[in-house]
Amino acid sequence: MRHLIDPMDLTVKEIDELLELADDIIENKEKYAKVCDGKKLATLFFEPSTRTRLSFEAAMMELGGNVLGFSSSDSSSSAKGESVSDTVKVVSCYADIIAMRHPKEGAPFLASLKSDSPIINAGDGGHNHPTQTLTDLLTIHREKGRLDNITIGFCGDLKFGRTVHSLVKALSRYENVNYIMISPVELEIPQYLKEEVFEKEGMTYQQVRTIDEVIDQLDILYMTRVQKERFFNEADYVRLKDTYILDMPKLKNAKEDLSILHPLPRVNEIAVEVDDDPRACYFRQALYGKYVRMALIMKMLGIAKPE
Ligand code: NCD
């Protein structure tokens, strides 16, 4: 039995196959409407979520399966003091596959050691978010037709943003990806990523402080929210939260085929006026998240592509 805890748990070939399957699901939705008949997905969310949980649930429903679960730790026995391992051990008796989000880094990994069903990490603290990464890769592939030979700017909270950490790791396996990390000094990517991914793989990256100085170079701009819930003090959050606001004047020098991604939720970092620009991909990206999760559920349950 395999779990998906870290984006690197999937090989490049497996990622290619998942994206291809997601593309086929988008083209031929009706073909997939019953493939998970009789299967159950549990969503165990110990931390807030809109897109990830609901897209997982919609994904399973569109495959003809059923869903069960909880959307906050208060409404589970974790409020009574039950350990994550015990919760998962029990839920794996009820569900064929489990998507789990937890504020503590490593919690889904610990859960996977006890679970009798495959565990999908739906976000663990500031660490990883592999299914958002699959969503991002599908979006980049559909927008650009490739995952290599791109210049990608990551902007905002690169320190606590797990979507950034996961996507940086996943992209490290593709050729000629040029990384531009745009953040205040306090929110730079963690040292472990600099050492274990960028330096180890011999990848080059730039660190800059403003969008303006690099916008004309970018094929992709990956905006992120400052992760309020991971700050140790409110004053730092307040000081940093509006460092970057992408608006139409900021896009003046951008390429015509720039793709603007954001895992969402957005707070202030993208002005609403940008939503109508054809370069804004973030709502399409949220939709793609459902299709790539359909592909992933099928793969993890060992369900073959229907003829
Ligand atoms: C992200 C997350 O939970 O890490 N949201 C999501 O899953 N789409 C990003 C965020 O919360 O800022």
Which descriptors would you attach to this protein?
single chain, 307 residues, alpha/beta, 5-stranded parallel beta sheet, 4-stranded parallel beta sheet, binds N-carbamoyl-L-aspartate
How do the strands and helices of this protein lay out in sequence?
Layout: H1 12-27, E1 40-45, H2 51-62, E2 66-70, H3 84-94, E3 97-102, H4 107-114, E4 119-124, H5 130-144, E5 150-155, H6 162-171, E6 177-182, H7 191-199, E7 205-208, E8 220-223, H8 234-240, E9 259-261, H9 282-300
Parallel strand pairs: 1-2, 1-3, 3-4, 5-6, 5-8, 6-7, 8-9
Bound molecules: N-carbamoyl-L-aspartate.
Short description:
The protein has 307 residues and is α/β, with parallel strands linked by helices.
What's the β-strand tally? 9
Structural class: alpha/beta
Number of domains: 2
Distinct ligands: N-carbamoyl-L-aspartate
Binned strand content: 5-15%
Please explain how this structure is put together:
The chain has nine helices and nine strands. It is globular, with a radius of gyration of 19 Å. The two termini are 25 Å apart. The chain folds into two domains: 7-129 and 289-300, Rossmann fold; 131-286, Aspartate/ornithine carbamoyltransferase (Rossmann fold, 3-Layer(aba) Sandwich). It is an alpha/beta fold and 307 residues long. It is 35% helix and 15% strand. The chain has helices at residues 12-27, 51-62, 84-94, 107-114, 130-144, 162-171, 191-199, 234-240, 282-300, and strands at residues 40-45, 66-70, 97-102, 119-124, 150-155, 177-182, 205-208, 220-223, 259-261. Strands 7-6-5-8-9 form a five-stranded parallel beta sheet, covered by helices on one side. The protein has a four-stranded parallel beta sheet with strand order 2-1-3-4, sandwiched between helices. α6 links the parallel β5 (150-155) and β6 (177-182). α1 (12-27) crosses α5 (130-144). It binds N-carbamoyl-L-aspartate (NCD).
